[in-house]
Specification:
Blueprint (H helix, E strand, L loop, with lengths): L4 H8 L28 H13 L5 H8 L3 H13 L8 H57 L9
Length: 156
Amino acid sequence: MSVSTEERRGAAGGRGESASSSGPLAGDGPSPRPSRRSFSPEYKLAILAEYDSAPDGEKGAVLRREGLYSSHVIEWARARDAGALAGVTDSRESGKRSRRSAESVELERLRARNAKLEADLLKTLTALEIMGKAHALLGQLSESAEDQDPPRPSKK
């Protein structure tokens, strides 16, 4: 004896919904998209200190308690070793620093573009000079051809 889909739905809740509150048949519509977690540098340093001081068997417990993955700790340790987490500064100062770096990036881009345009200008001027010399040479050849008598056909 088989049970139909309608009977299963009726046994689950009676209104055509599935037993779970999330999913495609939830009454509230689709679940809201979860937001990405962000961690402050102070939190990262505290977790790294706790993780590093924990014995080997307890490191997993720290990760589970905080809801973290080992990749978080690895990434944060690399950032700490590179000095990215060492200087926790005021957020107002970091905006100035990023603006300065954006300005320096823009300056480098403009310098590279200027160098390319100068190289293109030099090529164009060289080509123009060659065209002028070729025009003068063709003019000289044309004048010398007009001065000479045309060759006479030879008789055989």
